[in-house]
Design brief:
Blueprint: H1 2-22, E1 33-36, H2 37-51, E2 56-61, E3 65-68, H3 70-87, E4 93-99, E5 102-106, H4 139-149, E6 153-158, E7 164-169, E8 172-173
Parallel strand pairs: 2-4
Antiparallel strand pairs: 1-3, 3-8, 4-5, 5-7, 6-7
């Protein structure tokens, strides 16, 4: 039963990824609203902790409000955190920092080869070393698309001391705009 449940979860995630990417780029995203990024991030962290219960999550989250499509942004955050969980060693640490609109998620995994970095946001691309792990190669392309629609940027780089650091920069403010 556990195997069937895990496969159903993976299939549901794949269907969601495919639906997200099936939306043409020309189609406007859902309604943009002011979203507390730090709150969405806490929700995504709760999900990541369920997927990596043996991992330690070290967080430092300052308030940050962005204009985005909330469900799409939460899905992008989950995708970034899922990658950190997937590539972290057992009993590893995932560091998550949100300061002044810059979100950094750092894992202690094997890292990404420099010649692979230009491809990580391509649809369906998977590192040869990751092909034995679950995934479709769609997660980071969804992250890139969602962050760009919110006016931000995303990058991956080798982390100092090993692992990978994903950095999302989103325009916004530390306080919500005044109500009209």
């Amino acid at each position: 039963m556990a195997s069937v449940k895990a496969q159903m979860t993976e299939l549901a995630a794949l269907i969601g990824d495919l639906q997200e990417l099936a939306r043409p780029d020309a189609v406007q995203p859902g309604p943009l609203e002011v979203v507390p990024l730090h709150t969405l991030l806490r929700t995504a962290l709760d999900r990541a902790r369920l997927r990596g219960p043996e991992l330690t999550f070290v967080t430092d989250l300052a308030p940050w409000y962005v204009r985005a499509e909330a469900p799409a942004l939460e899905r992008a955050l989950v995708n970034v955190l899922d990658n950190a969980v997937k590539f972290s060693p057992p009993r590893g640490t995932v560091e998550v920092t949100l300061m002044r609109g810059e979100l950094t998620v750092r894992d202690q995994g094997p890292g990404i080869a420099p010649d692979e970095l230009p491809h990580v946001f391509d649809r369906f691309w998977r590192s040869p070393s990751a092909r034995s792990l679950p995934g479709s190669g769609l997660g980071l392309s969804i992250v890139a698309r969602t962050v760009q629609q919110a006016g931000g940027t995303v990058s991956l780089a080798p982390a100092e001391g090993g692992g990978t650091a994903a950095t999302l920069r989103l325009p916004g403010a530390p306080t919500p705009p005044p109500e009209l």
